[in-house]
Fold each of these.
Amino acid sequence: MIPQVYDSPIFRMACQQFDLVADFLEIPESARDRLKMPKRAVSVAMPVRRDDGSTTVFMGYRVQHHLTLGPTKGGVRFHPDVTLGEVGALAMWMSWKCALTGLPYGGAKGGVTCDPRALSIGELERVTRRYTQELIPFIGPQIDIPAPDMGTNEQTMAWMMDTYSLQSGHCVPAVVTGKPVSLGGSLGRKESTGRGVAYLISRAMDTLGINAQGATAVVQGYGNVGGVAAASLNRMGLKVIAVSDAFGGLYNPKGIDLAKLDEHVAKTKSIVGFDGAEAITNEQLLITPCDVLVPAAMERQITGDNAAKIQCRILAEGANGPTTPEADAIIAQRPEIFVIPDILCNAGGVVVSYFEWVQDLQSFFWDEGEVMSKLYRILEQAFVQTINFSRKRGVSMRFAALSLGIQRVHEAKQMRGLFP
Ligand SMILES: NC(=O)C1=CN([C@@H]2O[C@H](COP(=O)(O)OP(=O)(O)OC[C@H]3O[C@@H](n4cnc5c(N)ncnc54)[C@H](OP(=O)(O)O)[C@@H]3O)[C@@H](O)[C@H]2O)C=CC1
Ligand SMILES: O=C(O)CCC(=O)C(=O)O
């Protein structure tokens, strides 16, 4: 039974995935709700002064999914569709992601229901500072450590770190990750999610015997994750033939010139209107024939309606939750598609966030080479464990990744026991 406060398509989707895995792992009924339901949720109404002198009350949320293995960890999203249910589902996925990669964290996620594009820089700063202020009793280096997600970035983290530090009376860099390097951020964090996506795609290509030179890639979402993933795939020799953002998509079968596209985006803040490719819709983009399809935008993009039509060899989930369980069932009947599931595919971000937290706590910083080699070692281990589990147990890569993550949290909870 899903509590009404979380009830939403995305929270139901996360629960549906959990229930299937719990049946497979034969987790006793009595242990399931303890594993599944978020431990804590904070909802805040935040009055913020607008540039025109009026006041808007924004809603903000933070969900901490489990506290069994350490502090909680996860990004903060600024988007008009943010709800408590969405944040709860994303927090649950963070738990399985952190466990799959062996990080000493429970999952968390936060968000503010707002359109960051419609706010001035001053308004964004006031929303961020107010949100942080409201969360002060619930976050901290040993409690819960936010990071960037959709609609937030290094600047957002700098404001969060500053607001928290002002309250503490001293500088507390370890309260957030994904900060600017000049404030104790880690080298490589900004690029880590996209580079991790590209690394795992290269491992999947090795596994399937696909040559990167001349292979084609399609990327939905041209933000932090999608933009870096596209550039990394391009460097590996793939042609990026289609990309999109919230306003539309671009297609060029000869390969899009990403350096020129980046110049266009820097000027116009959108990929739309770039003259080196033809315009397509996001719906067309998802069914464009390619070797590698990277959904790196919103959740629930590959659904029962379009799953039979996608035409890729590798589906690399840069976004969280881009594929619904209905789509999963259809893709299961299409063994020619190799799925790198979200909690594995986009784990590079939280892994380097973990490195940033460790560096901040020790006040001892690593060079980029050390960060990246440690990142690839963790991703390699998670990839090998997932593919081995999938083959040995005859289940999909998503099922394997979720099983490994959920089983680890289950075992930890069993070992800690029940109080009183
Ligand atoms: N940042 C990180 O480290 C991590 C992020 N993720 C996940 O990756 C995904 C992307 O996050 P991130 O790159 O940080 O976010 P960004 O805000 O940097 O970029 C999001 C991109 O998606 C585009 N977009 C938004 N809505 C749509 C839509 N309906 N159709 C097509 N494109 C759309 C945005 O377009 P526009 O600019 O026009 O709004 C933008 O290009 C999210 O699911 C996030 O949870 C996962 C792990 C870590
Ligand atoms: O870097 C982090 O702590 C969290 C990244 C994130 O939000 C995610 O993996 O979805």
Note: The chain is about 45% helix and 15% strand.
Amino acid sequence: MRIGQGFDVHAFGPGDHTMLGGVKVPHTHGVVAHSDGDVVIHALCDALLGALALGDIGQHFPPSDERWRDADSRSFLRHCQLLLRERGYRLGNADITVIAERPKVGPHAPAMRAVLAADLDCSVDDISVKATTSEKLGFTGRSEGIAAMAVVLLQRA
Ligand SMILES: Nc1ccn([C@@H]2O[C@H](COP(=O)(O)O)[C@@H](O)[C@H]2O)c(=O)n1
Ligand SMILES: C[C@@]1(CO)OP(=O)(O)OP(=O)(O)OC[C@H]1O
């Protein structure tokens, strides 16, 4: 078994939705990012890459590379799943926490779990998506941005 953890942050900016776990969540703001700025998937990718000791998302998909501009972050996740399979692992389970005052994540969590499970070729029961505010403290509390943390356990396939 191998364990990995990931963390990602994006600032809020102009826009009317935020991509979270591959789901388009309506919001008063978008996020500032090179790709679609999906903090859930970015944190999850970093956790998967960390578990494999294969660096981080920025090394695999450099922000300096125009190919990743406005990219669908699900393509990053599918790449990580390929790396997992190539090395003889499968996801045991993943636990993800979004930190934001808004948008409310709870109503969208089932759809996010379904998307992530599809891309990681696992059961939705192996993917947890939850959320917390930071009680109006710090940059998330001031609604300046959104953060996500992920922990994964990999098992031999
Ligand atoms: N962006 C968020 C933040 C929170 N939730 C849900 O609300 C519950 C209460 O949050 P507190 O930070 O006040 O404890 C939390 O447990 C989540 O269920 C959410 O859906 N989206
Ligand atoms: C995803 C990448 C893609 O270029 O850019 P961003 O969308 O800015 O997201 P970040 O979380 O900063 O990760 C770095 C990059 O890999």
Note: The chain has one domain: 2-156.
